[in-house]
Design goal:
This protein is α+β, with helices and mostly antiparallel strands. It folds into three domains: 163 residues, D-Maltodextrin-Binding Protein, domain 2 (3-Layer(aba) Sandwich); 121 residues, Alpha-Beta Complex (Dipeptide-binding Protein, domain 1), CATH 3.90.76; 240 residues, Dipeptide-binding Protein, Domain 3 (Dipeptide-binding Protein, domain 3, Roll), CATH 3.10.105.10. Helix content is 28%, strand content 17%. It starts with 11 loop residues before the first helix and ends with a strand.
Length: 606
């Protein structure tokens, strides 16, 4: 049922090929009204000359009625939308930050496969060493209300981080000393001490730009508490406007006056984007399988069964792991605990984990074999990893090796079958992650059994998300599966900082925002500073390698699996020309550079 040996993934050549290619890239009511989807039952046909269709080569015959010109999407909104303030704690889709650039847009657009930063609201950008970044805006941009988009809107968006320091954008000013404009050009002076180009580029690629006229009033109404402002409107620059939002669906209408028609070569292919609101993944998965949803972002166990049964369902990669890796769920260890304060124990635990079993059972085959590195391979970060060192100096699943390491470190099994040293037993330890995070729950069940098998006393416990988050931040845990930075313009540096930084270390009981395991080291901060300020790729590779070397020696945490940054799954019942590794004009994303595909889809049967 599961493979005991780490799989020799046959699609590595395939993934290498698509990376090389892309590296050269210059609610129910709505579904009922769509005119009858043909994707669910005998309506599929061979795709003929169509490209970007199901992984089985199948495509549907198209919808009839209004639904033929509409795109049905899911996986982003799970409750009635109540607030479209993009700075709110939990704004509704698509105003939620760094999701889909359909209403709001960013200055630059990140490509998760190639790592490129493509033009967005900014037509170009230039980086001067680790000192400054300049951007020149596109011409002719207008807001949805017809008013002119100007550099003042850009400056004010980032200035909100000073007006309301509680906003996430406030961190921009940790990395930036000054942001000014001259004509249509914006100049950014980096903090002269931190010189963290990647962190600034990440903000430029993720921060939605908002209209100054609207948010000045919001700041005034709320006494500069912008996150507290509530609104049912969303005025952006994007290719769609917000038409309707109720308890069953969110509907976006194509912006016929979109500034980007010339830039992208067309208006979006669809007249509306409709996001039905489902109560569960299962509801959405059924609609998706039947062709009533065109594309979605949610976990589907064993998605290959859909195309094996003849459905025109597809993913970017044609073979396992089907999705481009973009995040790294991390196994955290509280290094203030006896036993876990020993690097030899931590490395032994890393050897004890059956990663192939996690990939196959917890992740439905959606994860390639994890490496002993904090760099995510086979995507935008691949250039920064030293695979030879990860293999020679790291770890793989080897239970016998795990026990040997424990014994060499002076641990011996007691009568209860568990290892101990100087009267301190390894455990009992609780492995936590939020209840209902099914793939992470399943992964930790495997880890707990692996630990028990080598003589470490461990068991799972799955609290609610809020309780789990508080426990991890306060250091009130033994071990946990938790997230760190996914692939973006600031990684892998940001991930090393998340896992290893000793800057602003806080005591147990106080809220930490990085290094939740409280691992202490005298070298790491200097290494992080060097990596952040690296002025060129060669020096950055050297600095990242030095960090990875230290990471493999100390093992403050280790990855359990890779996950996609976003699950990008499509059903070619009504639309073809979806981005795939063989049709790679766009990455498998809903945001950043992934907005390209909304302009390029082809209506089937037109």
């Amino acid at each position: 049922m599961t493979e005991l040996e780490p799989r020799r993934i046959s699609d590595r050549t395939s993934r290498r090929r698509f990376m090389a290619a892309t590296g050269t890239l210059g609610g129910a009511a709505a579904l009922a009204a769509c005119g009858g989807a043909t994707g669910g039952g005998g309506g599929q046909s061979d795709s003929g000359d169509l490209v970007g269709v199901g992984n089985n080569g199948q495509a549907g015959t198209g919808r009839s009625g209004d639904g033929a010109d509409q795109l049905f999407i899911a996986g982003f909104q799970w409750g009635p939308p109540t607030n479209f303030n993009t700075f709110a704690g939990a704004p509704a889709w698509p105003a939620s930050s760094n999701v889909a650039q359909y209403v709001y847009e960013t200055l630059l657009r990140f490509h998760i496969v190639s790592g490129e930063l493509l033009p967005g609201l900014a037509a170009s950008h230039e980086i001067t060493g680790n000192e400054s970044i300049s951007l020149t805006l596109q011409e002719g941009i207008t807001w949805h209300d017809g008013s002119e988009f100007t550099v003042d809107d850009v400056l004010y968006t980032f200035e909100l981080g000073k007006i309301d320091p509680g906003l996430g954008i406030a961190s921009f000013w940790t990395e930036v000393d000054e942001m000014t404009a001259e004509g249509s050009t914006i100049n950014i002076s980096l903090n002269t001490e931190r010189k963290n180009v990647g962190a600034v580029l990440a903000q430029l690629a993720q921060q939605f730009i908002v209209p100054k006229a609207v948010f000045e009033k919001a700041a005034e109404e709320t006494g500069n508490k912008v996150a507290s402002w509530e609104t049912d409107e969303a005025i952006g620059t994007g290719p769609f406007t917000l038409e309707l939002a109720d308890q069953t669906q969110v509907i976006l209408a194509r912006n016929e006056d979109y500034w980007g028609e010339d830039f992208y070569g067309a208006l979006p292919a669809m007249t509306k984007i409709i996001h039905p609101i489902f109560k569960s993944n299962e509801d959405g998965n059924l609609k998706f399988q039947n062709g009533e949803l065109d594309v979605m972002q949610q976990f589907v166990p064993q998605i290959s069964k859909m195309w094996d049964s003849g459905k025109p369902v597809g993913t970017y990669l044609q073979e396992e792991p089907y999705f481009v890796p973009g995040s790294m769920p991390m196994f955290l260890m509280n290094t203030t605990k006896p036993g876990l304060d020993d690097a030899a124990v931590r490395k032994a635990l890393a050897h004890a984990v059956d990663y192939a079993s996690i990939a196959e059972t917890a992740m439905s085959g959606y994860s390639s074999q994890v490496l002993a590195s904090l760099v995510i391979p086979d995507g935008a970060e691949d250039q920064w990893i030293d695979r030879d060192k990860a293999d020679s100096d790291g770890w793989t699943f080897d239970a016998a090796k795990a026990e040997t390491l424990l014994q060499e470190a002076g641990y011996a099994k007691g009568d209860d079958g568990f290892y101990a040293k100087d009267g301190e037993k390894l455990g009992p330890w609780k492995l936590i992650t939020p209840q209902g995070w099914t793939d992470w729950n399943a992964a930790l069940e495997i880890v707990a059994k692996n630990f028990q098998a080598i003589g470490v006393d461990a068991a799972t416990n799955f609290p609610q998300e809020a309780q789990t988050s508080t426990a991890i931040q306060n250091g009130d845990f033994d071990m946990a599966c938790w997230y760190v930075a996914g692939t973006n313009p600031s990684t892998p540096w940001q991930r090393f900082s998340d896992v290893m930084s000793n800057v602003e270390m806080v005591d147990l009981g106080q809220t930490a925002y990085r290094n939740f395991g409280r691992w202490e080291n005298a070298e790491v901060n200097d290494l992080l500073e060097v990596a952040a300020a690296a002025p060129d790729d060669a020096s950055k590779k050297e600095a990242i390698t030095a960090l990875d070397d230290l990471y493999r020696v100390e093992v403050p945490a280790f990855p359990l699996m890779y996950r996609p940054d976003e699950f990008f799954e499509f059903n070619a019942s009504n639309w073809s020309n979806w981005p795939t590794e063989d049709n790679d004009y766009a990455p498998p994303m809903f945001r950043g550079a992934g907005n390209e595909w909304i302009f390029q889809l082809k209506k089937i049967g037109a």
